[in-house]
Amino acid sequence: MKTTKKSMLSSSVSTKSSKLVTMTALAAACTMLLSAPVNAAETNAAATSVPSAVDSSKRVIRLAQPKADSTAQSSTQPAPQTNAPVAATQQSAPTQSLFPMSSGQPQTVTPAPTKPVYTGSTHVYEPGPMTTSGIDLRSGQLANIPTPKVQLSDVSFLKTVLIPQQTTANSDKLDVSLLDDFIQEASPNARHYPPNFPNRTQRYNVREKIKVLAEWIEPYALSPNASYDVLLRAAKLNGMGRNLDLGSDYTIRGGKYVDRAIKLQPDSGEANFLYGMMLSEGGGFKEGQKYLDKAVSLGYTEAEQSLAQSDVLSDRRDSALERLRRLESENPNNAMIGQQIKIVEEGKFYIWDIPAPDINVKPGA
């Protein structure tokens, strides 16, 4: 019995040992199979200039393509793994080293830039002959150039107007030809309040031109010895600027200049009318009436119309109609007075609110 048990025990031990050997061999084979892709990935990653992407099981997902320079350097002199990021940074730099690490690395020699060589002769400009009318461009340096031809249309001429700058004797003259032409053209539209223009473009052009001309005449009008003619023109410009809502500065300057003009010439019908009109249309009916009455006594017809405007705004329509009808009988050729009578009869308030003619004013012209 003991012999039988021993034999059975030895057979079971041999069976277990054979199974253990079989499982050990199987485990070794599995280990080799799993380690093969990792070894291949490490070999390929070492040949590339950038690391490959791997998942959690160390299997290669994407392999970067090796660069030619990296392959050449890795075959001659492999870099240690600790310095791999530094080597990749150096390879990605745009500049090349002056002393290459390997003699087998190709070197690019940049040729020095060459200066362009200019051929031909140098021509030095020489001025042409001087004449009383200037340089004759048709001779000398500009041979065989056709003569330009210019055609002019809508030619107009302005009468030259020169006024004294100051009240002193032998004062310098000031050319106000363009200024007087503008005032004459824009006054029917902008002298009275409210201003009346056929369209916004013309209103804008007049506003811009007033800014330019008022700035031009300002230094002459600010002079303590400014002449009557300078002060009157400056007052007209600033008065129109006030009516066109250019600001209170225009109102103040306009009143100041016309007041100085009246002190120089107290019997000027135009200056008295201008001051009375500016005061009455600005709300100062009583203050402006004495200047308007004096202008009427000096034979200034437009002052009567301004007095009628003051009567309308002061709720004296009957007085305004009586004044305008009398004025119409004295001036039968003035069609504007009949239109003003109609405005008052219709119950309106501004007798100057009449369609004004088109004007051809351009800024900076």
From TrEMBL:
Residues 65-114 are annotated as: Disordered. It comes from the Bacteria. Residues 68-111 have a biased composition (Polar residues). Residues 1-40 form the signal peptide. SUPFAM superfamilies: TPR-like. Keywords: Signal. This is Sel1 repeat-containing protein. The lineage of its organism: Bacteria, Pseudomonadati, Pseudomonadota, Gammaproteobacteria, Moraxellales.
